[in-house]
């Protein structure tokens, strides 16, 4: 092989090496650009105007467009959440005073000397006002939870003070129906948001009192290695097996209890709270003998 051929081969080799190095440099530059885009997106500072699109590869350009669209979508979601937050605050504020007035005037009318038919109407007005107040309060709380306006803050704590506060809250209501509301002492701990878990337990205890005509409501807690279980047992009417999977649905009410007070939101709200803490609720019931709601909380 003559010298000219060797030179040509060497030049071809050097050219090929230069092309490979250039391509590698281009790929590395593209990856660095994409990495910068991701870092900016993660910190919420991404803007497509920060990049000179003429210097980007097709991949970089498409990725920049994607991140720009994602950033715009994120801003839209934040704006919609702000609108929902304002709407919920307006509903809560604007309905609080009228409902409070309805309850107040109903109570004043109940103290007046009225015909039997008028007294019945006043009592119905009072009960419906209470029902409306409970419904609006529950829906506002639920909407705040579902839209992330209120976030749960679970912390490890003893269950005994939580359970004692729920018993104290409902002792008078149970006594009015001549029911025994009992709490079994416990040294169990769990990870939960004290305020919102109390709300969930209160809804379950309120239902137990509502659907129990005589007997006992017992609250207890058991500790396991990975979780703690709270049991709320009653001697009420019980729940048919065919309906046990339905009672946690929003606004679900069995035909057998349609004549009793309630709106069908309490158990749904309780389940949303407990699941938001990493726990869950299950029910065991025998019609005519009572029900046990078990709340499982992580430790």
TrEMBL record:
Transmembrane segments: none annotated. GO terms for cellular component: membrane. Keywords: Kinase, Phosphoprotein, Transferase, Two-component regulatory system. Its main location: membrane. GO terms for molecular function: phosphorelay sensor kinase activity. Residues 90-299 form the Histidine kinase domain. It catalyses: ATP + protein L-histidine = ADP + protein N-phospho-L-histidine. It is found in: Membrane. It holds the Pfam family HisKA. Its EC number is 2.7.13.3. It comes from the Bacteria. PANTHER family: HISTIDINE KINASE (PTHR43711:SF31), TWO-COMPONENT HISTIDINE KINASE (PTHR43711). This is histidine kinase.
């Amino acid at each position: 092989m003559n010298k000219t051929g060797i030179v040509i081969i060497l030049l071809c080799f050097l050219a090929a090496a230069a092309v490979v190095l250039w391509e590698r440099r281009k790929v590395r530059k593209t990856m660095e650009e994409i990495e910068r885009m991701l870092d900016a997106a993660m910190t919420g500072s991404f803007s497509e105007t920060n990049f000179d699109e003429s210097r980007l590869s097709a991949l970089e350009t498409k990725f920049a467009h994607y991140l720009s669209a994602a950033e715009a979508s994120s801003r839209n979601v934040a704006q919609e959440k702000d609108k929902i937050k304002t709407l919920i605050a307006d509903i809560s504020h604007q309905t609080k005073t009228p409902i409070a007035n309805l309850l107040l005037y109903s109570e004043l009318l109940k103290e007046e000397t009225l015909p039997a038919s008028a007294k019945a109407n006043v009592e119905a007005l009072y009960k419906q006002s209470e029902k409306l107040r409970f419904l609006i309060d529950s829906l506002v709380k639920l909407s705040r939870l579902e839209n992330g306006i209120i976030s749960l803050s679970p912390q490890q704590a003893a269950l005994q003070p939580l359970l004692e506060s729920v018993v104290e809250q409902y002792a008078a209501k149970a006594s009015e129906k001549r029911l025994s509301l009992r709490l079994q002492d416990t040294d169990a701990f769990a990870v939960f948001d004290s305020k919102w878990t109390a709300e969930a337990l209160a809804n379950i205890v309120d239902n137990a009192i509502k659907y129990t005509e005589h007997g006992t409501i017992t609250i207890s807690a058991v500790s396991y290695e990975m979780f703690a279980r709270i049991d709320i047992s009653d001697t009420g009417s019980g729940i048919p097996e065919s309906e046990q999977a339905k009672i946690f649905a929003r606004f679900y009410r069995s035909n057998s209890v349609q004549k009793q007070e309630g709106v069908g939101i309490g158990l749904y709200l309780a389940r949303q709270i407990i699941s938001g803490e990493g726990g869950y609720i299950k029910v065991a019931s025998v019609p005519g003998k009572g029900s046990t709601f078990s709340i499982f909380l992580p430790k």
